[in-house]
Amino acid sequence: MDAWHPRDLRGAGRDPPDPRWPSGARLALQFVLNVEEGAERTVLNGDDGSEDYLPEIPGTGRRLGQRHYSAEGFHDYGARVGFWRLLRLFETRGLPLTAFAAGRALELNPEAGAALTERGHEVAGHGYRWIDYRDVDEATERAHIARTCRIIEAATGRRPVGWYTGRVSPNTRRLLVEAGGFLYDSDAYDDERPYWLSEGGRSHLVIPYSLVTNDIRWLLSPGCATADDFFALLRDAFDVLWAEGRDRSGLMSVGLHARISGHPARIAAVARFLDHVADHDGVWICRRREIAEHWIRHFGVNGN
């Protein structure tokens, strides 16, 4: 059994631990902004071709050996426009974010890292490149983790304590544990509460993420076509978890991307969801770093 990637169908079973969120909150709500633009596949980054995951441009595919100007523009919009629109939205509401930032994205656009820091948001690592790390050898991935940490620290003044690769290799989590200094990673979709993994006296906290309450639904079929669709998806998930929180507090993750939710027709759904949340008490809106610190403080390393 791989200790860092166990297949555990039981989890906490019928009696999961009470998270004991601050102020007795019945729900912890955490927003992630993925900062990936510039780190995607492109010949400009030394790849053999261009990004091919472009549902907004039907019929397109990877173009080997050449630039794909439409694909570049789709991503560039996120960095040039969408990122700032989302930051303004959360700034006007006084709400915190955790950014999953690819090292290459901040390397090309360090102003984004500085802006996140100025507004008090957390910046976690998201790989050096926004690529599938199953195709990357162990030595290169180890170097990418170290390089990303240096880039984030240079851009924000603080080394990342969280990590989310997204498309992990069999080595990713072990390399993070070996590197040290991380409070958590979020490369998991198997639970709604944090949990511990351990091997050989080393422990590692996992804070699961979600691809359901995530704006990637805009680009999948069947998915969201209008702001009403995405708002309803987020609202319904929130309402269920908030109701369950009377007896058992939970955690909800919302994943956003600047090149997706940063468009005017889509950010409307995020704004409406924030209005909906504001109408409810007992909600702790937080950074992922704070979830990790809370879990360690209340349950101890490798606690239950």
TrEMBL record:
Q: What's in the keyword line of the UniProt record?
A: Carbohydrate metabolism, Glycosidase, Hydrolase, Polysaccharide degradation, Xylan degradation
**Is Hydrolase set as a keyword in this record?**
yes
Q: Name one Pfam family in it.
A: Polysacc_deac_1
PROSITE patterns according to UniProt = NODB
Query: Which CDD domains does this one have?
Result: CE4_PuuE_SpCDA1
Q: Taking every annotated instance into account, which residue ranges of this chain make up the domain NodB homology? A: 69-286
Matching InterPro entries, A to Z? Glyco_hydro/deAcase_b/a-brl, NODB_dom, PuuE
Please give the residue ranges the record annotates as the region Disordered. 1-21
Where do transmembrane segments lie in this chain?
A: none
Bias category Basic and acidic residues: which stretches?
Answer: 1-18
A single GO BP annotation from the record? xylan catabolic process
**Tagged with keyword Transcription regulation:** no
Lineage top rank: taxon: Bacteria
Query: Which Gene Ontology MF annotations are present?
Result: hydrolase activity, acting on carbon-nitrogen (but not peptide) bonds; hydrolase activity, acting on glycosyl bonds
What is this protein's record name?
Putative xylanase/chitin deacetylase
Record lineage:
Bacteria, Pseudomonadati, Pseudomonadota, Gammaproteobacteria, Chromatiales
